[in-house]
Every structure is written in structure tokens, then in C-alpha cells.
Amino acid sequence: MNNTLHILNGDSTLNGFERTGIDGDVMVWREVLSEGPLLEKINSAAFWKERAAWINQTFKEPADDYQQKVVEPLARLSENYQDINLWFEFDLHCQVNMLGVMMLLSQHTDLTERNIYLICPDSFPNKPDFRGMGELTGDELEYLYDNIRVQLSEYDFELATEAWDIYIAKDTAALDQWLATERFWGNLHSLKHAFEAHLKRLQTNAEGRNYIEQKLLDIYNGGVKDRPSIHQAFWKAEPVYGMGDAELNIYLDKLNIA
């Protein structure tokens, strides 16, 4: 077995990663923990059973597919890798998935016996409209690996545990207070901005809509009527959420739009 494991944030990143010269085994994270129900104990069977049921109901994903694509690869986290590299981006979708992986790692293993690294780009040279690692070539992913990879510390994992607990709680006041508290953000440099976006998502306006729902409605009322165009307009305006088409459709369905 290889001594190194790379946990990638999605299949789009895998396409470029396969064109790099970076050694190691690969696991693709295919969950969307920023949406749907979450339990505190991510390493429990109940957590994954509830996630599978929600994914099946929401995205019509067969239970067997979820087991094969999401649950079975988790066994890799228990294997004896010396180095683990987490490839996750700046947006809320990726940051919550990153926290989930960090929680799994902290519950699966003695962290003092492993080196865990994070590659988390929020920009890329000469790409003013950087959207994520899925648009990068193998050479560009190697550039990230060589230049922005950082080793996560015990403090980073303590901070991640705090963030996970506060995220699970869905308590607007507690999240607002947590964000307002002066703290060192360690190597999790994108976490605060992503959680500020999440806070806006928890809050509702006088009409009972949260920030994402209101933004989508504004786009629709502004003359953008079909879903692919609404997806594009939202993504351009709010890249911090990192939401895919299927996730945005959850909100559009609720709004009965398009």
C-alpha cells in the first residue's frame, strides 16, 4: 500500500489530478454535507443511514450507489496511511465537507501518528474568476501542492471540532456569537468567510425567506427564467456557497420557480 492518501473534493478535481505526477492513493469525497440532516457522531452507522435516506429522497440516488460511492470508500480512512492530503476549496459546500472529513479522521485514528495536510485554494494566479480545482490542469494542481499545502495542527482540529458542533446545532444566535469572537483561524483560513455565508442562510427576512431563497427569487424576478441560467447567475453572484445545480434546485423547488 502507498503511504500517502489524497482525499479529493469531487470527481471534477479527480480529472485533473490523474494528470499530475503526484504519488499516492486517491479517495473522492462525494457527499454534500452542507445540505440535509446531520448528526454529531459522523462515524456512526446512524449518521450514514440518515444521509443515504435523504440523498435518495432528494436526488433520487439509489441506495446501492450511495453505499458504493460514499460509504465504502470511508474504509480508507482506517488504513495505515502516513500522510493524508485534504483537497478542499474555499466555499461553504467544500468547507463543511472538509470539516466532516476532519471529524472522521479525528475519530478514526491517533492524529499524532499521521501527517494531515490541507490544500485549500481561494484563488489561482492569472485566474481572476477562479471557480475551483475542477477547472485546473494537472500542472496547476501540482503548483498548488508545491506552494500552498500546509500541515494541519492539533489546534486546527480543535477549531474544526468547534465549527462542526456549531454547524450541527443550526443555532443562529450561537453561530453569530461564535463568528464575532476573536480567534486565531489557524490553517483553516476560508472557514470564517464560509460560515458567515452560512449565517446569512440561517437568517430569514420578513417574508420568511433565507438569503439564498431571496437571491434566487431576485434573479428570477429580474428576468432570468430558466433554471440553467438561474444556476449560472447565482453561481456568478455567490461563489462562496459553492452550490451545484442539484443543490440549488432544492431551493428552486421550494420557491416553485421555473
Describe the model.
- The chain has 258 residues and is an alpha/beta fold.
- The protein has two domains: 4-166, Dna Topoisomerase Vi A Subunit, Chain: A, domain 2; 204-258, no CATH class.
- It is built from eleven helices and five strands.
- The chain has helices at residues 11-17, 45-59, 63-71, 92-108, 138-147, 154-169, 172-180, 191-202, 211-221, 227-237, 245-255, and strands at residues 4-8, 25-28, 83-87, 115-119, 150-151.
- Strand 1 (4-8), helix 1 (11-17) and strand 2 (25-28) form a beta-alpha-beta unit.
- The longest helix has 17 residues, at 92-108.
- The protein is globular.
- The N and C termini lie far apart (50 Å).
- The model has no long low-confidence stretch (mean pLDDT 95).
The level 1 CATH classification of the largest domain is Alpha Beta
Give the spatial strand order of the biggest sheet. Answer: 2-1-3-4-5
Count of individual beta strands: 5
Share in β-strands: 5-15%
Structural class computed from helices and strand pairing: alpha/beta
Distance linking N and C termini? 50 Å
- Residue windows where pLDDT falls under 50 for at least 5 positions: none
- Portion of residues within helices: 40-55%
Task: List the domain count as a whole number.
Answer: 2
Which fold name fills CATH's third level, the topology of the largest domain? Answer: Dna Topoisomerase Vi A Subunit, Chain: A, domain 2
The run of helices and strands is: EHEHHEHEHEHHHHHH
CATH-level-2 architecture of the largest domain? 3-Layer(aba) Sandwich
The outline comes out as globular
Q: Quick check: average pLDDT?
A: 95
The radius of gyration over CA amounts to 18 Å
Tell me the number of helical segments per DSSP (H or I, 4 or more residues long). Answer: 11
Q: Main beta sheet: strand number and arrangement?
A: 5 strands, mixed
